[in-house]
């Protein structure tokens, strides 16, 4: 299991979140070009910051959309920390945060050129859904949604994560 991993609730104005979001947007621009829709974040968005050995390596935002509906925004893990199951940690954390806030359905948008993200979401129970504004006319956009339903037992979620990380036993974690 990865040691020195911390998930911290922070506002969207947190400097580490801003740095990570800027890096994410630069990666996306390199793949899709600069003409992709720039989506403003809701002022009530909250973020979960993932720190590894005290260093920010990932984040995910939970944006309110309507009563019972939230949207995952700016899910990102730095390239040097990928392949360790950290995105699953972030996804589990944002789902738990949504449930605590009374959100029963989450939606998200990702791109056609992001197979790892698509696999993460579909393997975590997200199903394709028709594109929603402002993505309805974007051919490179894929939208997904998930009904959260009952709260998942944390022991099961962490057990799965520990099993996934255990595959990398003997390899020093990034950081």
Calculate the terminal CA-CA distance, rounded to whole Å. Answer: 14 Å
Uncertain parts: 151-175
Mean pLDDT: 85
Number of strands: 7
- Large-scale geometry: globular
Helix coverage percent:
25-40%
Task: Write down the secondary-structure element order.
Answer: EHEEEHEHEEH
SS field, number of helical segments: 4
User: Structural class, from secondary structure content?
Assistant: alpha+beta
Instruction: Tell me what portion of residues adopts beta-strand conformation.
Output: 25-35%
| Strand arrangement in the largest pleated sheet | 1-2-3-4-5-7-6
Largest sheet data: 7 strands, mixed
Rg, rounded, reads: 16 Å
Model description:
The radius of gyration is 16 Å and the shape is globular. Strands 1-2-3-4-5-7-6 form a 7-stranded mixed β-sheet, with helices on both faces. The longest helix is centred in the first third of the chain and has 18 residues, at 15-32. 31% of the residues lie in helices and 30% in strands. The model is unreliable at 151-175 (pLDDT under 50). It contains 4 helices and 7 strands; from the N terminus they run E-H-E-E-E-H-E-H-E-E-H. It is α+β, with helices and mostly antiparallel strands and 175 residues long. The protein has helices spanning 15-32, 86-100, 115-123, 154-166, and strands at residues 5-11, 46-52, 55-66, 69-77, 105-111, 127-129, 141-147.
């Amino acid at each position: 299991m990865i040691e020195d991993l911390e998930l911290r609730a922070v506002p969207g104005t947190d400097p580490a979140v801003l740095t990570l979001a800027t890096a994410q947007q630069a990666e996306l621009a390199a793949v899709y070009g600069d003409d992709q829709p720039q989506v403003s974040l809701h002022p009530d968005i909250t973020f979960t910051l993932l720190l590894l050995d005290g260093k920010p390596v990932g984040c995910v935002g939970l944006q309110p959309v309507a009563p019972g509906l939230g949207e995952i925004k700016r899910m990102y893990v730095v390239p040097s920390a990928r392949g360790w199951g950290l995105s699953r940690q972030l996804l589990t954390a944002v789902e738990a945060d949504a449930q605590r806030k009374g959100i029963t359905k989450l939606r998200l948008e990702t791109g056609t050129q992001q197979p790892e993200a698509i696999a993460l979401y579909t393997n975590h129970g997200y199903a394709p859904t028709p594109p929603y504004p402002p993505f309805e006319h974007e051919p490179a956009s894929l939208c997904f949604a998930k009904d959260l339903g009952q709260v998942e037992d944390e022991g099961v979620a962490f057990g799965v994560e520990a099993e996934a990380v255990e595959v990398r036993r003997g390899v020093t974690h990034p950081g």
